[in-house]
Design brief:
469 residues, elongated, alpha/beta, 31% helix, 6-stranded mixed β-sheet
Length: 469
């Protein structure tokens, strides 16, 4: 029997259950083992209103339901995981859940320091299971990289928990921008129609411009014509393209901001389109994510009156914990986390031709239309006719992102900003971040757009530093 066909027993670390409460149902036909020290750690983490505490309580409910359904069975023989209905797993599990019901011998090496801590207890339990079940491949599953390293040192097969991965590789995440083939116009010229709609130029071509085509995909030609358009509608037999506005021109500035490159121009087209309900923007530091989102928001709130106000929020690390009992309002407590907002607001209001009095009056007016909110208090809220900016979204889990996106009510627009290469939250990676999750899942929705900003536009010093440091 090959390794792929051998029965497997997965030992779950505490952080896996804290990260994904449905993880015990993700191992299909294989068995799952929960050490006693994991149950103890879950018990100590169940209190509070954080996301981790909620996940722990959900895991406990699942296990309690499994044990109650298995009252007539011998618990030492394992309990069928398939008895729990309504769990949103990829497929119905057919394995068994084993809880540690006996003291297992300590097989850890004597030279291993700190043998009494929780991680080493899990390692000792896994080693004992390897000896007790030589016919099975016993595997330790943990989100803790250091624990996986220690496991391999003592001869244990260790794996990361990958069932929550959106993509196998972050490089597979689409950028939202694609170049059209060189012979695009020649190949489509015979079945091409053009017209004006709401003062915008539209094109209809036969078939699809590229093999992978989706709504609000940003397309361009690299020839002298520099054609830039967005996919408005697409089907197997025809595609409608919307000619992009050129926000690089001075007369097309958005709240005094001009696009400095192709990606920024596409970003402003997505941000200024009222038919798009959600825009996701990825990009490294200095690419202009926050500035573009804020400028487009001010233009649509103050000038076009499309939205009542701008709501800005971002993740405070640690996520979901209390932001403190210091004196002050919610906005005052969030102020230290909003340095990026204040920096960009200063750029947008400090016009060279305005005096000190005009700038003060402008700032006073804008602060009444810009509200800073904490993610901690988002649950249960509904924002109507708001322009919502979520900054540093790479630190959100998929579940937190779902909670946030569902806050948008009728007439609201959600802007999600982040850089998946700067994740600060423990146990989140580029492939499991909620930002990656929402970009991938909304790709084919006709009212969402995505763009990845490539070029930094902060300063020549910052650009050079990002290249050489």
């Amino acid at each position: 029997m090959s390794d792929s066909e051998s029965p497997r027993l997965f030992v779950l670390d505490t952080n896996v259950l804290m990260h994904d409460p449905v993880s015990i149902f993700r191992f299909q036909e294989h068995d799952v083992f929960i050490p006693m020290v994991v149950l103890e750690e879950l018990d100590s983490a169940k209190k509070g209103v954080s996301e981790v505490a909620r996940n722990v309580r959900q895991v406990s409910r699942f296990m309690d339901e499994i044990i109650n359904d298995a009252e007539s069975e011998d618990i030492t023989q394992g309990m069928l995981l398939s008895k729990i209905k309504g769990v949103n797993g990829r497929s119905e599990p057919s394995g068994r859940l084993y809880l540690q019901t006996e003291v297992l011998p300590d097989n850890l090496p004597e030279h291993l320091p700190g043998k009494q801590n929780a991680d080493n207890s899990i390692l000792g339990t896994t080693l004992s299971l390897q000896q007790k079940h030589p016919d099975k491949i016993v595997t330790l599953v943990s989100k803790d990289i250091n624990l996986r390293i220690k496991a391999r040192v003592v001869g244990i097969i260790a794996e990361d928990y990958t069932s929550d991965k959106v993509l196998d590789d972050a490089d597979l995440l689409h950028t939202g921008v694609d170049a059209l083939p060189e012979n695009f116009w020649e190949s489509k010229s015979e079945a091409l129609t053009s017209w004006q709609e709401d003062m915008r130029t539209m094109y209809e071509i036969s078939g699809v411009p590229l093999e992978d085509c989706y709504p609000y995909q940003c397309l361009y030609t690299s020839d002298d014509a520099e054609f830039e358009a967005l996919v408005k509608h697409t089907s197997e037999d025809k595609t409608t393209l919307l000619l992009a506005n050129d926000y690089r021109k001075d007369n097309q500035a958005v709240w005094g901001v001009n696009a400095r490159n192709r990606e920024q121009n596409f970003a402003l087209n997505l941000l200024m389109d009222p038919d798009i309900d959600m825009v996701t923007i990825l990009g490294a530091a200095g690419t202009g994510k926050t500035l573009l989102a804020l400028a487009a928001g001010l233009a649509q709130v103050m000038d076009k009156k499309l939205y009542r106000e701008i709501i800005i929020t971002r993740v405070t690390i640690p996520v979901g914990e209390d932001i403190g009992f210091l004196p002050g309002t919610e906005e005052e407590k969030m102020a230290p986390w909003m340095g990026a907002l204040l920096d960009n607001l200063e750029v947008l209001t400090n016009a060279d031709d305005s005096g000190e009095w005009e700038r003060a009056a402008t700032n006073d007016l804008l602060t009444k239309r810009i509200k800073i909110r904490s993610l901690n208090f988002m649950r249960g809220r509904t924002f109507l006719n708001r322009y919502i900016i979520v900054d540093e979204a790479q630190n959100l889990t998929a579940k937190q992102m779902k909670t946030l996106v569902t806050r948008a009510g009728p007439g609201s627009k959600l802007i999600v900003l982040g850089n998946i290469s700067q994740i600060d939250t423990p146990y989140l990676t580029e492939t499991t971040s909620g930002l990656t999750y929402v970009v991938d899942r909304f790709k084919n929705w006709e009212h969402s757009g995505h763009i990845t900003l490539m070029r930094g536009e902060r300063s020549r010093l910052a650009d050079y530093a990002s290249d050489v440091l």
